[in-house]
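Moderator note: this is an archived Q&A kept for reference. The question asked for a predicted structure of one protein chain; the sequence and the answer are reproduced below.
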Amino acid sequence: MENLPTIQWYPGHMTKTKRMLAANIGIIDVVIELLDARVPLASRNPDIDTLARDKKRVLVLNKADLANEKSTALWTEFFREQGFFALPLNSADNKKNDTNKLTAALKNMMRDKVALQKKRGRINAPIRAMVVGIPNVGKSTFINRLTGRAGAAVADKPGVTRGRQWLKVGGEFDLMDTPGVLWPKFDDPLVGLKLACTGAVSDNVFDKITLVMHLLNIFIELDAAIIQKRYKVEVCSDIPALLEKIGAARGFKMKGNVIDLERTAITVLDEFRGGKLGRVSLEIPPV
């Protein structure tokens, strides 16, 4: 499909958040950036590279349970080759193994500074880490998993965390939770489309039918079986007709036997976000 929709979303509170991040970066030792494992490149805020250019960096590919496992492995290797410590993670899973890997990596990154602090008599000085990421990438769930308690608000929509929060992880780390923040303009319309599909952009700023038709086209390019398996329809290249087929298969009909395309689109979008279409990644690493 051509003529991608132009999706932009940068509410005023994000400008305030960006200023807050810049004001606090000086006291931070490590920046932990959460990415959406389904769209690791689209979910990287380019402003973070500028903000954290002189800081230790960690990239967490969150929501890995929703992403294609092979694609996530390729992305993890891609970022590691760029010099980042990268770790796929399902923050909603309470298993400690991956969390332990992360805390061990943080300690290793900061071992020289910790040794210097001890030499100066500051034996229990905590490592200060700033957790950043786009909206709805799972920062609060991630922090709650690290702290072992429900310390940060969690919701399946962008814009829940609105202010700076400091939380402790044992006696070794102080974590600064920050609101989700995007950047002022998506130069590539495909980035805006992918972020809208994953829920990083408010659902009120785009037409769901148009968005889902483009999402279906991405599914076809990846693997048509994604659609066939879930909706039990014959996949065709006529995307509007395909959306109608899905609506008919689900029984979403209005008066006059007309398919309710809005309800169909909302269903496809919700089921993709919830992982009901299987583990689907919308991006593969550049060659």
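Archived answer notes: The two ends are 23 Å apart (CA to CA).
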